[in-house]
Specification:
The protein has 339 residues and is α+β, with helices and mostly antiparallel strands. The protein has helices at 2-22, 83-89, 95-101, 140-154, 234-242, 286-303; strands spanning 42-46, 53-64, 70-78, 116-122, 125-130, 162-167, 170-171, 201-209, 215-223, 261-267, 270-275, 309-314, 317-318, 330-331.
């Protein structure tokens, strides 16, 4: 009897090992933020290292181009414990990170050899502690760009809305070129290009390139002058977009000169943007048309979070601009750039 029981247990053990070998379970990794972060889109991909399936998160990181502009780029980052910390590590200037983005001419923003000592997230506040190498930059412009890149990248996570910077465990009053960092920092003034300061500002999207081949969309903050006290509205933003970027910045728009915004109406999450007839002068190119509509859609998104699609009109009549307008309105893109 005892011998039979041993044999039975042995057979059961063999069956369990066999079943485990046939299974291909998804490797689920607990991350720093818990269930709240599941609102971000994820995909499952095969791990080329043979460690099973890997869950990836669509994550926006802010790189810089050769003109110093910050460029948001969606990357697929593996879910790991402390994903926000590993995301920042992807922005440290080292050979691997440079090679990763060299095909589109973008650069990591955090100075070389910087270590991320630690990170804590609670009630929307992210405290991030860098090594002293974080301060290895040469100008106030680089200082401000670095801070914004860190803040904008971290606040892409739904659990973070402000960031407290620390150096070697201590909160600093000011950084070497005078930027105040004693209090938590929020998103503000990305790629500010206006000569004057103003309480009324809009974010619009122009195009840029570093190699003349790959193009990307650049969020730009522009000051505007209001004749009333009603606050900034979507027409103000689109007016700022169609006037084009200031000269000499290396940015451009393919919206025809002379284009004017007549009206914007939103119905069932579709924005109907009515321009004058100059909008019809868009080059007869599918790519050009799509870029124009995308820059309009991204600018609208800064004003209307609930807009899902865009339809272009000229003097009140719907027009077909490229294949994107032939049947359905163009969906507002989730991300400005992807790589």
């Amino acid at each position: 009897m005892k011998r039979n029981r041993v044999i039975a247990l042995f057979l059961i053990l063999c069956m369990m090992i066999s079943l485990a070998g046939c299974a291909n379970p998804i490797r689920m990794v607990k991350n720093l933020f818990g269930d709240d972060e599941q609102a971000a889109s994820t995909i499952i991909e095969n791990d080329p290292n043979g460690q099973g399936d890997v869950q990836l998160r669509d994550t926006v990181l802010y790189y810089k181009d050769d003109k110093g502009f910050l460029i948001p780029v969606m990357r697929k980052i593996p879910w790991t414990e402390g994903i926000a910390k590993s995301t920042l590590a992807s922005l440290v200037d080292n050979p691997a990170n440079r090679q990763d983005m060299e095909s589109i001419g973008l650069l990591p923003v955090i100075p070389a050899n910087t270590q991320i000592h630690g990170m804590n997230i609670e009630n929307g506040l992210c405290k991030v502690d860098f090594s002293n190498d974080f301060l290895n930059y040469a100008s106030k412009e680089e200082e401000e760009s670095l801070i914004r890149a860190v803040v904008y990248t971290l606040t892409e996570f739904v659990t973070i809305d402000r960031v407290q910077l620390m150096i070697d465990g201590k909160v600093q009053k000011k950084l070497p070129f005078g930027t105040e960092v004693s209090k938590p920092i929020t998103r503000d003034n990305i790629n500010y290009v206006s000569a004057q300061q103003s309480k009324d500002k809009v974010v619009v999207y122009y195009e840029g390139t570093t190699n003349g081949l790959e193009t990307y969309f650049v969020p730009v903050t522009k000051a505007i002058t209001k004749s009333d006290d009603l606050g900034v509205n979507v027409i103000d933003a689109l007016d700022a977009l169609v006037e084009g970027p200031p000269e000499g910045l290396g940015l451009y728009t393919q919206i025809p000169k002379g284009t004017k915004v007549i009206s914007v109406d939103v119905n069932n999450a579709i924005a109907y943007v009515n321009f004058n007839e100059e909008i019809l002068k868009i080059k007869d190119s599918e790519e050009t048309a799509e870029h124009v509509v995308k820059s309009i859609a991204l600018t609208l998104k800064e004003q209307y979070n609930d807009v899902a699609a865009v339809k272009i009109l000229a003097n009140g009549k719907e027009v077909e601009i490229g294949t994107s307008q032939e049947e359905e309105p163009l969906a507002v893109p989730t991300f400005a750039n992807q790589h």
